[in-house]
Amino acid sequence: MSFAGTASSRTGGAKAHGATILGVEGLTLGADERAFLRDADPWGFILFARNVDHPGQLRRLTGDLREAVGREAVVMVDQEGGRVQRLRPPHWTEWPPAMESAADGRRAVELRHRLMGQELRAVGIDADAAPCLDIADAATHSFLKNRCFGTDPEAVSLLGRAAADGLLAAGVLPIVKHLPGHGRTRVDSHHDLPVLDVPLDELDATDFAPFRALNDLPMGMTAHIRLTELDDRPATASPAAIRLIRERIGFQGLLMSDDIGMNALTGTPAERASAAIAAGCDLVLACNLSRAGLAQVAEAAGSMTHQAMARAEAALARRGAPDRTAAAELRAELAAVLAA
Q: Is residue 104 flagged as an active site residue?
């Protein structure tokens, strides 16, 4: 089955990649999985702990993924620090969560993310699903709370920019999340649909503010949350919410869904993927589905639109060369900042 041409009419006839970022099964690529990926031609890939053993293995896997699709496709990971960190000791640094890192100030945040980016780029990973620009409060759900940089929009904006700058300096694309803001919700979207029953005018000055301040960044990820003032759909599947992200927040970068397999969404994988694309997401992120589920997503998402392709090219233009600054130099500066 060929997936990449299923929506070619939306691209004006130009060759387009599949409108997906797909997870893979394990530490290596088998022949069947390689053939599936070649046909599905996802725009990029996402890795998890199941894909990570040691640096040599990971470099081979990222190389094999790119070889399967015949290009320098983006390979992303969730490497925030704290419990959301797929690359861990003994081969990689154990980084603090965002809220803990925030207490050390802007320069410490930037240095940590630059070092984090160096570790990622060294094994062929060139995009990180960070920073979280969600704003925490006293009742933020525990799945998210310490992943936030704080409770103040200005501070979250400042520290989020520092994190993004550090990743970009290392040649790694930051992916801001979770648009338009997940912090006030009280439910884990991995399990249920969070509902945000707050006037949009109030959100403008709070939850939306960090995303607006960083709306120039190349890539972003939606939140599976429902804004009651808009409609009854999760933002990922809501044209009104995507329009808010594009117009009210002003984010014009490449926009992917959060994981399409999360239980905040309903329907089959194909129905979820179709709804996300119809709402205006550029890409569907599918992390933990079976091969059959990934095939459904690839078929339903089809090819990237002409506009999505343009945003993707703009994002790739921000993917710089690997950082040549010695890690030891950066770690020495970080130690001095922490000791001051």
A: no
